[in-house]
């Protein structure tokens, strides 16, 4: 027996993964931090995005790393093969998708959170109190009642799914969690606009209700859900025996940033006894701006709101959030007793409602810390001013488009998204978008509006200014001219990152 113990001790003696030389590790860590800060501070000196060379992509496809490698060498590989070929949303010229730019403050907070390595599934520790504090701040900002609940998730796609599950449990009762949705569940119908994000349909799929149970209602000239058509469809569904249970309104549609008439939808949902959810992925945070908040009138009446701090809130990815008016209904949709999650009157297992009672995850990172740092460091007034500024820049781009005969505006500019095109066919505009992205000058995206291919500029990054808008317009004109043979305009591209 003693021999067996000695052999076991020998085999596990050096299993710690801590550095053997903390001084050398500290020096390399400081270098990593300094170079990361430099990359943010000097972001304009590099392309927004650049294609991944074949040899770089191939080099990453190595075999399983059985043996240890020197940390400095691993970092070198990251610096040369990963960092230069990121999405580019840190760059002020990134205007493609609604991605926030992040901040150096948020980066440091993420580092601190990693150092704590806290699991926010439950138990009694201060990181959970930080998350609860942000829930309370959001409750006040959106004028929700006492007893409202909230939870951090990966993003609004997950938050929308969770809202569907809460609404489903509210409609069917908690027994549906045990027995399944049954015949009553097969009759449930939900409603959103045809301009809503695709994750709403996906949520219906994952929730077991089926995408056919989601009624996509037409929009008006401003791309807002047609409330009269919504009312009519609900009445038709009730008449034939369906059970309307959920309306998902948009506060900032994915294509053009339209905000549905939230007050009218709230009134309809109250009248019909239907759960009213708002997909406010980026638009809900307009609540931080005194100038823009009135556009969200009625959001305070929602039963639940989904949003992303990593968009307009500029928190590093990922930091999605779900806020629910009735905390008990929220808990009933997810809480599940288990012996290993027993709550005690004292000690580390103290507390009643744990975050794992409010969502599907038991293992949860400390997303709240980078959000807490961001809100505390900058304050909601400054963040609101940044949000309003991005909308002003969108108006500036709108003016530039309207003043240029070779460009065509394709949709009203509601918030921070501008959809336009070069006056040419769809294929030419498709090539223009790819040309601009590959040039490294800017990174717009695209969509289709009323059957037309659109260049879509979503201005979210707090670093973006008028010079970046001008660079985008100049690039569209240059590549449009090249593609259509209308002549050449000289545009200077940023240098390529070091290979």
Task: Briefly summarize what is shown.
The chain has 499 residues and is of the alpha/beta class.
Describe the structure.
Helices cover 43% and strands 13% of the residues. With 499 residues, the protein is of the alpha/beta class. The strands form 2 sheets. The chain has a 7-stranded mixed β-sheet, with helices on both faces. Helix 5 (104-116) runs antiparallel to helix 14, helix 6 (126-141) packs parallel to helix 14 (367-403) and helix 14 crosses helix 16 (466-484). The protein is globular and about 60 Å long. It starts with a helix and ends in a 15-residue tail after the last helix.
> Count of helical segments?
16
In the predicted model, the low-confidence regions spanning at least 5 consecutive residues are: none
Tell me the series of helices and strands, N- to C-terminal: HHHHEHHEHHHEHEHEHEEEHHEEHEEH
> Radius of gyration, rounded?
25 Å
